[in-house]
Amino acid sequence: MHDAVRVLVADDEGLIRAGFRVLVDASPGLTVVGEAADGAAAVRQCRALRPDVVLMDIRMPGMDGLEATRHVAGDDSLATRVLVVTTFGDDEYVFAALRAGASGFVLKDTRPEDLVDAIHVVAAGEALLAPRVTTKLVAEFVRRDRVPRTRARAVGLDELTEREREVLVQVAAGKSNAEIAGHFVVSLNTVKTHVSRLLFKLAARDRAQLVVLAYESGLVTPGA
Fold this sequence. Notes:
- By secondary structure, the chain is α/β, with parallel strands linked by helices.
- The chain has 2 domains: 5-129, Response regulator (Rossmann fold), CATH 3.40.50.2300; 142-216, Winged helix-like DNA-binding domain superfamily/Winged helix DNA-binding domain (Arc Repressor Mutant, subunit A, Orthogonal Bundle), CATH 1.10.10.10.
- It has helices spanning 14-25, 39-49, 65-73, 91-100, 112-123, 131-145, 151-158, 162-172, 177-184, 188-201, 207-216, and strands at 5-10, 30-36, 53-57, 81-86, 104-107.
- The protein has a 5-stranded parallel β-sheet with strand order 2-1-3-4-5, sandwiched between helices.
- Helix 3 (65-73) links the parallel strand 3 (53-57) and strand 4 (81-86).
């Protein structure tokens, strides 16, 4: 039997924290190990409790969720993945959160079962929830930012094989491993191997960063 996924809930509204706690604790395979009312507390709790996933609100007093995400994702001693909890009004922050190291995001009005699924997905390293929606946002904000391709990223892309580039394009389109396997008519293990090599060669933390890199590098263009 697998250990339960350990979850930290970070939100400045007590009622929301309580709601998330009830939902998560009632879900098989999940357990809440702590709560935080601001970003600084979230970082401290992550270091003290070592959760697998932190549900991170963006707008919190003091240190906000973006800065807290940078601290958590940037701490090599932690294996904690950040799942940002946002509203439609926070769209401007979504891409910034992904670049800060978040593994994905969910909307606060998402269905309870979808939030539970998202936690499991992120804990397993699959990253983005509702990837097609997310990639549209990523594409839009990369277009706005016009982020120049760095030499490091260019060198990383040059090291990819043709098939790895094709797989990266599919990942950026929000396709799951199973969908990619079906597209190329290869085994699921073959796709997992390609994705693992992409993560290694591009020094990416997870699939969310692969999506960002695909757009930032120009391999995938907004609207394509």
